[in-house]
Amino acid sequence: xxxxxxxxxxxxxxxxxxxxxxxxxxxxxxxxxxxxxxxxxxxxxxxxxxxxxxxxxxxxxxxxxxxxxxxxxxxxxxxxxxxxxxxxxxxxxxxxxxxxxxxxxxxxxxxxxxxxxxxxxxxxxxxxxxxxxxxxxxxxxxxxxxxxxxxxxxxxxxxxxxxxxxxxxxxxxxxxxxxxxxxxxxxxxx
Length: 190
Known about the structure:
It is a single chain. With 190 residues, the protein is mostly helical. The chain has a single domain, classed as Four Helix Bundle (Hemerythrin (Met), subunit A). The chain has helices at residues 4-24, 28-54, 60-83, 92-114, 123-140, 147-176. Helix 2 (28-54) packs antiparallel against helix 5 (123-140). The chain starts with a helix and ends in a 14-residue tail after the last helix.
C-alpha cells in the first residue's frame, strides 16, 4: 500500500493544509509558496499515475485515493480563492461549475462502480484538469505578481469551467444509460 505512487498521492493530501496556511499569510512570499506548493502537488498527480503504470504498482488503494486527493486539493484552493475575493462576482460561477461537476462525477462513479461499470478518464477531462491546475496556480499568486497574471488565471479558469461542463455532460450521458431501474424485457412493471 505504501508504494511510491501512493506516497505521492498522500503527499498531495498533506500539501492541502500547507497551501491553505500560506494563502492566509499576508506576505508576498507566502502567496508564492502557496502557488508553488499547489503546483508541486498537481505535478505529483501526473507522476503517481506514471509510476503506478510504469512499475506495475496500480493498487485499489491508489485508484480510490487519487481522485479524492485531486478533488480535495482543487476544492480547498477554489474555496480559498472565493473567500479571498480573488474569484469574485461572476467568476464565482466558474468555481461552482468546477465543484458541482466534481461532486456529480464522484456520485456517478460510485453508482456505476456498484454496477461494475468503469468510467475511464477522457482526454478532454485531462485537458480540463491541466487548465484548472494552471489557472488556480496563477490565481493563488494574487497581488504578488502583475495583474496580467491574475487575468490570465481568470481566462484559464473559465476555459476549465467550459471544459468542465462538456466533460461533465459526457460523464452524465454515460451514467444515464445505466440508470434505468427497469430495463425493457426484464420484468419491468408498467
